[in-house]
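FIELD: query
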Amino acid sequence: MEIVQSLYLGGRSVRIKQTVNGLRANGNHVVVASLAEPDKKFDIESLIILPCDAKIPWRIILKLVKLIKQHDIDVIHAHCEKTQLIAGIAGWLTKTPMVATVHRSNLTRYLPSRINSLVKFVATHFVAVSSERLMRLHNQLNIPLDCLTTIHGGVNPRALPNESMVAELKQKLNIVENKCILLSLGHMGEIKGHSDTLDALSMIDKSSFYLYIAGTGSTQEIGFIKDKIDTLELEGNVELVGQLADVNPWLDCCDIFVQPSREEAFGLVFIESGLAGKPVVATKIGGIQDIVINQKTGILVDIRQPAQLAVAIKTLINDQNKRKQMGLSGAHHINEHFLIDDMISDYENLFIQITKRKVSRWKQLLQ
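FIELD: result
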């Protein structure tokens, strides 16, 4: 059983949908429940909606108990603190193990709290989305290492486009010519570091680059970015393109992917950019460090350091061969380590181990 609090725009929802579809494609029976109606993009076949507004909704817990028994569930897999607590209680009532995948970028979610203590009590095992997050769970929440596993997100493999295909895409998307094309993909909020990118670009020769920023945000967040573009006199070098239905054509057309996130639990977009054969300029935080190999598939800088960021961007703008070499290394690295099939296989292996532990434990109790 997969259970989630909500399925809205973001990397977590992408990963959950990929997990459900991948497990089902491999012949597993997967029951999926959400505590809220999903965004249309993340609608999942046979999704069960369990509306929930109480702090500890016993009515929902009892419904989960019924579903667990009805479908003979072997493992519960929960993705948010609230669903982990609810599912964990249902798991205790039915003697069904609960695996908790922790997706949060917000670092306060990794600090001791009442709900974290309760989830620790009812969870059988925890999955971290990156090695850095695994160590936070261990060091800050005192979860034993043998109860922790890192499982990275993934993408489907795809071929790199040839030059003629890129030329057609650039014409179709009306991409600026004769400049190094930079691309950022992410929410307009502070956490994605767009402000740092703009500060860095103000230190670079404006004739050498053009930046496209794709993503959505609140009116205030978008207004802040637009005001900063005007203040730094970058209106001729930066364009906001809004939310994209398909990021691949834009990744194919760019020369450098730039995203100096201030926090990132994992960062699916860094996998997507690497798969597209693009060098990445990003920050040394969170899951990015698992994805981008510094000085091999991209350049990593410290957070909130526009001057470092400017040096990294200028280095790649001025060295086409370095961009190509890093891009090819990135594509190879992603295809070797970050495919959806790998993620699904890791989850299946973990679920099998958890089920075996459950059987072994009950055999011991009966002896």
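FIELD: remark
Residues 340-366 form the longest helix (27 residues).
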